[in-house]
User: Fold M14 family metallocarboxypeptidase from Marinobacter albus.
Amino acid sequence: MNTASAPYPIGTPGAPWGDAERADWLSRQTRQRSYGTEVLSVIERLRPRFDVKEYGRLEYGPDSYPLMALRSRDWNDDLPVVLVTGGVHGYETSGVHGALQFLDQHAADYTGRVNLLVAPCVSPWAYERIHRWNPNAVDPNRSFRDDSPAEESAALMRLVEPVRDHALIHIDLHETTDTDETEFRPALAARDGKPFEPGGIPDGFYLVDDSENSQPEFQQAVIKAVEQVTHIAPADDSGEIFGSPVVARGVIQYPLSQLGLCASVTSAPYRTTTEVYPDSPRATPEQCNAAQAAAVCAAIDYALAHR
Assistant:
């Protein structure tokens, strides 16, 4: 899908946003769903089976959001650690609910085999507003670095620090949506005072490997499992997905640490970022959630078999 768009309604083309433009942007954001009803309530239902921890709290104006993580109840320091994150971009719904579905339906299969640490909704303010950024117009998924400008990212890094060098796997659950092209990329260009260059949205599931520590067989194991649930994104006419060269079926690469991406927060040998396409006429919300859960299972299964 290629989209041409009018100038973004906030700011002056070519000029980065200042405080006034950020305030204008923030004034336009409205709550569209409930983190408490849709996420915290599910975590409460899972509490009898997992250790639940509040690892931080976001204070945004009148709103206060507890940041929640779930851990294996039978945590054993001799077992490898699996980190699952979702909702780093709050609007990417199946990342949140796929992580919770994995815990509910599949986590028991790994009891005594791995330690699970799951942060299902890293950005609850953005979850409620179906947005990519936090209230400061900062993208948490470009902020996983020292002195992070995003408290969402800084809090997750503090949570993960004790297991950072013990993790076997980190799988970060995301979506690519039509609104990436119609709203979020145009907003990013406007915020940074750059021209918006329309692109294409891939129809299907794909993965982002780490170009600095690629694991091609691991990525393909995840792709093979997910294609039993939903379709895999093909390369475009340029051999790319979302502007990046396709290095294997359904796989592109980014330098995770260099870009400050969530999947760089551990030194796990097996790392990947999922990208589900929920706007496809060939996929339902249920399939999207199931695809995320299947990706987590496949990642664990491969890593345990190849330790």
Observations:
- The first strand starts at residue 50 and ends at 60.
- The chain has a mean pLDDT of 96.
- Residues 19-305 form a domain with the Aminopeptidase fold (CATH 3.40.630.10).
